[in-house]
Design goal:
Blueprint: H1 2-27, H2 35-65, H3 70-74, H4 77-92, H5 94-109, H6 117-145
The protein binds protoporphyrin IX containing FE (HEM).
Length: about 150
């Protein structure tokens, strides 16, 4: 039963992450920035941070208290490939998060603040890379769950 609850939570958080990432990417357009968009990006990015911590916590509990036992995952290269992809997404998200936080500060000082188009374009490219690496995670997850590479 707890495995079912953990698996359900895991999926809900994963869909939440994908939705927030897609929303941020849709908002991150150089020619369409407004103070309202900057504020929304701040809210979505905070949600993204919280969901990332939540997936790490729920994923960790699944590894150590899931139905298959920790060894099934820890000795599986697909698990580590998945964690590496998750880590890469995390690293890629550092710069966008820092810039979005700086924009929130700028917005507090000047209610009409909009970021420079060049800055927005750079972050968009980073977020596109993030989406592509993110797409690898469920592929590794499906292989991992089926014991591909497990010895
Ligand atoms: C954005 C991050 C993540 C995504 C997109 C993701 C995606 C998935 C998906 C789609 C499955 C179902 C696989 C299947 O049954 O075919 C799954 C299962 C699982 N994930 Fe994640 N996951 C993420 C993060 C994590 C993290 C950080 C951990 C561990 C620290 C983790 C541990 C697990 C475990 C233990 C399972 C159960 C596999 C099984 O049924 O044997 N996940 N994940």
């Amino acid at each position: 039963m707890s495995d079912l609850v953990l698996a359900s939570l895991h999926h809900l958080i994963v869909f939440g992450l994908a939705a927030v990432l897609a929303a941020e990417l849709a908002l991150m357009r150089p020619a369409a920035m407004s103070p309202g968009t900057v504020r929304l990006l701040g809210r979505f990015d905070a949600a993204y941070g919280m969901l990332s911590l939540a997936i790490l916590a729920v994923g960790g509990v699944r590894v150590w208290h899931g139905a298959k036992g920790a060894d099934f995952y820890l000795q599986n290269p697909m698990f580590w490939a998945k964690i590496a992809a998750f880590g890469a997404v995390g690293l890629l998200s550092i710069r966008p998060t820092m810039r979005i936080a700086a924009w929130q500060k700028a917005l507090k000082a000047d209610a009409a603040f909009v970021p420079q188009q060049e800055d927005v374009g750079k972050l968009r490219r980073i977020m596109l890379a993030e989406v592509h690496v993110f797409a690898l995670i469920p592929i590794f997850a499906a292989a991992m769950a089926r014991g591909v590479g497990f010895s």
